[in-house]
Amino acid sequence: MLLVPLAAAALTAAAQDPPKAKKLYCWNDPDSGRTCSDALPPDRVNSARDEFSVNSGARVGAVDAAMTAEQRADAAAAAIQARADQAAADTRKRTEQAMLLSYASEDDLKRVFTERSTLVDNSVDTARYNVASMRAALITKLQQAGDAELSGRQVDAKLAQDIGQRHAELVRQQRLLNSFEQQRAQLSSEVQDTLQRYRTLKGAAQPPG
Predict the structure, then answer these.
(1) What DSSP string runs through 114-173?
(2) Angstrom distance (rounded) from CA 16 to CA 11
(3) Whole-structure pTM value
(4) Do 88 and 104 contact (CB within 8 A), yes or no?
(5) Which class for 2: exposed (0-12), middle (13-18), buried (19 or more C-beta within 10 A)?
(6) Given 3-state DSSP classes, what are the helix, strand and coil percentages for the chain, each rounded to the nearest 5?
(7) Which of 41, 52, 83, 93 has the highest local Cβ count within 10 Å?
(8) C-alpha triplet 27, 30, 36: angle, nearest 5°
(9) CB 162: neighbour CB atoms within 10 A?
């Protein structure tokens, strides 16, 4: 007995639902130019298009073209980079607040950098000494080889091997020296930037006079 009223109610509700407004779809076709149709072809489902009301002709919406796999990968990479940039900004803000709390004065902050600078300077000095020593030793071995050749004697195999090893070690020490010198230059720049930032933060944190 309940089926009849329920069926009648369903028919009444369906009759009250307004019909969906018809749309006109317009897209750019590479061959035929601007194309419009009241039915969207299956091969244009993923294409960019504008949608208009058939009754009023008013533009009622737009759909962007579906992204390619490469575009999706680029978008994902951009989202990851944006999150990383935001995390870096948050970290910097927390670091700046910690810096204000940790160092009561500029001299306290300078002392920290002085310790780091001393360590890097020691590394630079040691590398310079090693380069000079290895260069002098290599020159001595090369002179021995040169004397042998000028005397018409064949350069000893052990001497030639020693020259090769010392040359390789000299190159390695030179690379270390260059690395330490770059660290020193970067540290000097970091010191100036940090001190300038500290002064700015300290000034902003001071109550107005």
Answers:
(1) HHHHHHHHHHHHHHHHHHHHHHHHHHHHHHHHHHHHHTTPPPPHHHHHHHHHHHHHHHHH
(2) 9
(3) 0.47
(4) no
(5) exposed
(6) 70, 10, 20
(7) 52
(8) 25
(9) 16
Residue pair 159/141 in contact by the 8 Å Cβ criterion: yes
Sign of CA dihedral 29, 30, 32, 33: positive
Tokens 């980079």 belong to residue: 81
In sequence order, the β-bridge partners of residue 62 are 50
Check: CB of residue 46 under 8 Å from CB of residue 64. no
What is the per-residue pLDDT across 141-192, written as a single tens digit (0 to 9) for each? 999 999 989 999 998 889 999 999 999 999 998 998 999 899 888 888 888 8
Residue 106, H or E segment: helix 106-150
Beta bridge partners of 29: 33
Which structure tokens are listed for 88?
A: 């870096």
Tokens of 91: 């970290």
Question: What would the two tokens of residue 73 be?
Answer: 């990968």
Structure tokens at 63: 């759909």
Q: From edge to edge, which strands make up the β-sheet containing 23-29?
A: 33-37, 23-29, 49-53, 59-63
How is residue 4 written in tokens?
Answer: 């009849």
